[in-house]
Every structure is written in structure tokens, then in C-alpha cells.
Amino acid sequence: MTAAEIPGLIAAIVFAILVALLAVPLLKLGRVFDETSAAIRGLSADVTPLIEEATTTLTESNRQIARVDAITSDIAESTANITALVSLFAASIGGPLMKIAAFSTGVRIALRGSRGATPKK
Prior knowledge:
- By secondary structure, the chain is an all-alpha fold.
- 92% of the residues lie in helices and 0% in strands.
- It is built from one helix and no strands.
């Protein structure tokens, strides 16, 4: 072995040691990637049914909201009909009732006046 080959041999040995030292963290990093990959697969398997359940729940909620909307519109229509009925009743019966009440009050006052009593205020 010559003097020029010795530094090359030392450099090769140092390079081999460096490669060996760097191989350990790379192997550990490979295991971490494997574990991460397995965790993602498991999470994906668990999340898919949850998303399907959420979709089903949302669809059913939308269906129920549509039913509530229909009920609300029916109640609004019934309220409008009742309001119209009350207005009709007040217009057709209320006016004559007011006249009858005013007439009876006038008759009562007249009868008290004819008896000599003073009307109450």
C-alpha cells in the first residue's frame, strides 16, 4: 500500500461509518412513516361511516324542516282565515250589537228619568 492509498482508505472507512450512522435514523424515520400510514388508513376507515351518518342525519333534518315549514304555512293560513272570520263577525254583528246596546242604554236612562231618578254618570 502506498502513501497515497492510505488517505483514500481512511476516507472510505470514515464514509462507511458515516453511512452506517445515518442509516439508523433513516430506518427509524421509515418506521415512523409506516406507522403514520397505518394510522391514516385506520382513521379513514373510521371516518367514512361517520361522514355517511352525518349525511343521513342532515338529509333527515332537511326532510323534517320541510315538514315543519308546511305545518307553519298551514298555521299561517288558518290564522289568516280566523282573522278574516273575526273581522266579518265584527262587521256584521258588531255594528247592530252596538246599536242595540246604545238603544237599551237610552231606554234605561229614559225609564229612570220618567221615574224621577237621576241618571248615573
